[in-house]
Amino acid sequence: MYDAIVIGGGPAGLQAALTLGRMHRSVLLLDSGQYRNAPAAAMHNFLSHDGTPPADLRAAVRAELAGYDTVEVREIAATRVLGSAGAFTVALIDGSLEEAASILLATGVRDRLPAVPGLDELFGDVVAHCPFCHGHEFAGGRVVIQDGPHALALAGMMAPVAAEVVIPDSDVVGLRAGGAGVLVELADGTEIDAAGFFVQAAFEQSAPFAEQLGLTLLESGCVRVDGFGRTSVDGVYAAGDLAHTPEHPMPMASVLTAAAAGLVAAASIVRDRVLATL
After folding, report:
1. pLDDT at 24 (0 to 100)
2. Is 90 exceeded by the pLDDT of residue 252?
3. Which of 65-69, 142-146, 171-175, 200-204 bottoms out in mean pLDDT, i.e. has the lowest?
4. Which CATH number fits domain 2-110+202-277: 3.50.50.60, 3.90.1150.10, 3.40.50.300, 1.10.357.10?
5. Within 13 A of 26's CA, how many CA atoms are on the CB side?
6. 86-102 as b/e, with b when 16 or more CB fall inside 10 Å?
């Protein structure tokens, strides 16, 4: 039995495995190969890694994890989590089972993009949804923001960065690469040449484990955690985009904050396990 099984090989899961490994706790990291930031050529707003391709960061951390004898990494997806604190069972896609005293969910969320032709192909490049991750790359150019609940706030954030911010009255019906970066086609026949386009995207849990375990969810659809990454089920922790505290309206879609959450949750696993034996 492992001290912990970490499900998810993005920044939250990788950092959690590193933290557990440094404390000589046996940990199995399960990586399905699915990552929210896979469409992005580079990640930003991460000290010392600004502009680094996400795959390069994952490879670097994998190499670091290899130096810790108690850390095992498998490139395989989990399908189900059962059990309770001290005796969890994780079913893998190949039919095998693994057991652990604690579970750390780091499976993230899946972006649900509107059905606009050309959007999927440009998402993560000249089309984005986070100004902190990609806003600077549109500096000095025209930025188009899709109308929606967060459009005005986003426009205010981008005002010091962009030369011009446009929130069209007409629906966006198509996007294609060209001009200054992206050509935005509107329902009224207008075409706007812009450096970048911000889409109003929704998201959903990318894995079924929160539902399987009966974890308490917040209005955002994310797992409710306390400041230490603990969920509503004893022995289950969550970190990264799939979870946040009630004080926040949604998770901060950032590689850095996801990694930080992974560290905190992993440290909580170690501390809680020790306190349980005293």
Report:
1. 98
2. no
3. 200-204
4. 3.50.50.60
5. 7
6. eebebebeeeeebebbb
